[in-house]
Protein: Solute carrier family 12 member 9
Organism: Lymnaea stagnalis
Amino acid sequence: MSLNTANDDVENYGADTASDSDSEHTPLLVGSSSKDSFFNRRLRRLTRSLSVASIRREDGEPILSAAASQRVLGTFAGVFCPVALSMFSTLLYLRGGFVVGQAGLLETFSQLILAYFILSMTVLSICAISTNGALEGGGAYYMISRALGPEFGGSIGFLFYVAQVLSCALYVVGFVEGILENFGQGGSFVSPGNGLPDDTDWWKYLYSTISLFICLIICLIGGAMFARTSAMILLIVVVCTLSVMISVFAKNYNILVDIPDNNPYANFSGNNTPSGLYTGLNATTMRDNLFSNYTIDYSTSKEMDYATVFAILFSSVTGILNGANMSGELKDPSKSIPRGTISAVCFTFSTYMILSTLIAGSCTRYLLINDYVFLQQVNIWKPFVVIGIFASTLSASLGNLIGGSRILQALGNDQLFWFLLKPATITTKSGNPLVSVFITWFLVQIVLLIGKLNAIAPVTAVFFLLSYASVNLACLALELASAPNFRPTFVYFTWHTCTLGILGSMTMCFMISAMYTSISLALMFLFAILLHFRSLPTTWGSISQALIFHQVRKYLLMLDPRKSHIKFWRPQILLMVSNPRQSCELMVFCNDIKKSGLYVIGHVKVGKLEDFPTDPILDETPRWQQLVSHMKIKAFIELTLAPSVGVGFQQLVRISGLGGMKVNTVCFGFYDDTMPTDSLLKTKIRKRRFFLGTELSNFQDFDSFFETPRSGNDKHLDITQYVGLIQDALKLQKNVFLCRNFQLLNKESILQPNDKSYIDVWPVNFFRPDTTSYFDNTCLFMLQLACILTMQSGWKSHTELRVFLCVQSISENTAVKEKKLSTFLQQLRIQAKIVIVSFEQLLQRFNSDADHGVHEIRTAAFHESESETSDVKMHDYNEVPHDYLQAVNALLQDHLNQSAVTFLYLPRPPTSADQYPDYLEQLTAISNWSHPTVFVHGLQPVTSTAL
């Protein structure tokens, strides 16, 4: 049925229920009424129509989707059988006795308990994740990637796929080993001198290739065939295992078992073939096999130890994800995966514990460590064990081949690795990933060249342990994020079980092989870094964002503004932006000067909410956020809708920030008639990297969204309103700085390697020249901002701070003032070049009643009582003659040589709005040049000389 048909059904359903609801208002609940019967019929019809449709949200993530192939597998055939068969695999008949012989019964129990503890913790995490939503094809990869995000999901998915390939090769080698032990030269089912040739490794490789080809044929047929095959094979394995257990009781007498000819470490002497003793259940035999006795493994010629034997054991029981890997073909993955996986784990664990006990009580250690297939020699019917070996190993390899191909298909569908995995998405009409199966088969063929089961086992165990640690990490992250939508129907897990699963997996990884683990982790992080720089799907919902939110909220609550201290002060800037197209340089400058503090870009949209169908801010905010990302600045965006800019500004000042992170400084552009320039064009080109996806070109077209700059006379505000914003900011106890001519700021020229620029600070209120010898909060704030700028990368190595000391006349007292200023800067840990400027000619032009006597340099820290009066006097605006302002401007321009930015004192605006135009006019006159200038007014202390 098509999607349109499904939609029609939804519409008809809605129409029917609507008509019924008009006549009756009884809620539609499950019951025996005709109303309920009608509801259930319609719901079943709707569900059937949706079961073959693929409905997606606007963001592209499926709400309800069917797998590419028809979902035909139930819990038993789709989960229990593949998991149980894969967990039996080589350990059940080929390495069970080897583990007991090397480790002893007690350590075998400890290894089984440890292995199944790790598996159980992981199973709980799998069950939790798989019951928290619709699970698509890809199994463990799908769960990890949707929980941890595409970067770690893709890298871990790749490692998990490699683990599936290695595991498939491991079981094929075990299958061939069983064949050659019975039908090879000297095999138990052939006469001496006959049997399959196995004198070279290439014969073994040929047999492995043929075995793998059989698995390939079954996989090409599809999931249904695998389900039928696995159910039948599991029945065979259960029967054969029961025959082993029955044989231990039936043959309760001594039997000599010949050691295989391919064991070079057994004691061969002449024509006598060494033998191991089967005693039947015997207390002495049990006692002898209780403790470990690690020796050389005759197939690899390597000394065994606890970690190596554990790796062999664990690599044989790694099938817990085989059911999850078939999630795309399960009828109900959320129910089948928990039930089938937990049942299979309990079943196999019980089987191994019983079988290990029986083996330890009936076989001597010499027999256990020198013959992998001793069980068939003591069985009531030898072919039972042979059939069991073939069935368990072949089915396990089959499960990993199918599971691996599904993971590869899922990786290809997610398009994480560019076009490289595009062929892996090709499927047959029934949805079977044909190409993925062939690719996996080819890679297994390569791994088969290793040839030795015990050599493949350690690296296989490491890859699976890392995968299990990742599954537990994904579940732990979801649990710690405390997202309301994480509410799995499987509730038998906590963050403790996830943590134990992670610790257990990682500990055993390093115990088995620190080298393999380190290489695997390095590969994982390498892929994660590569995928991080690639434009990846964002509709998955990365857990990192949820975790960041959870932690940020917690620490914001801990950030108490009442405990703030001047020693740890930093600027928390609100930059008011009317049009970002003409403010890009200023936005970048504020980003440089924030010093790891809060940086908010604010914008007021003038209007009333009742004039819009929906809040226009909701549509505009993403565009601003994209602009910030495009410019690579670390800023938050705050937009508001208000009837006027003044009202909106007050809203932004009050609400910007959160908790202890609130704005303490407001930055405005300067109000003048300068023709605005389109500075967005300068920052529009972004460096591209070869591994970035084409999605980079999908940035919103800023040209069409942000209006082009208007002429200098076309403004949103008049002079009175603009100065009123400054006054409001000061009333709200915020520091203020005004930035003029920043469209002329050229950071590229500043950062030239051969050029040295200065950041100039004039700590004097030119509107109150009688206070030139005092340092108030504004002067200190100017020094702090300038010092921060010189601490930033780029500015630090190419600029130098220059402080101008204004004196009334050059005299003997000048050196004393310079020394005091130098000492004061040292106390503030500010490195600066001091330049002495004579103020004598300016004072002659200044016609006021101010006292022109010689003053000492004073700070609030030195002369508290005197500075209070001086601070008030310095802050006040004082209208001065125009000729004086021109003289000040000329003086400043004389010292603009090699200056990158100039900081000037901003007096408090006059209390009367009638004086606002004069106030702004005088600020304009004093900075009438083509040079970036910052007017600064500070209210709170921002520097400290204390430790």
About this structure: The chain has a mean pLDDT of 82. The longest strand covers residues 799-807. The CA atoms of residues 188 and 726 lie 97 Å apart. The domain at 81-251+279-532 is CATH 1.20.1740.10 (Amino acid/polyamine transporter I).
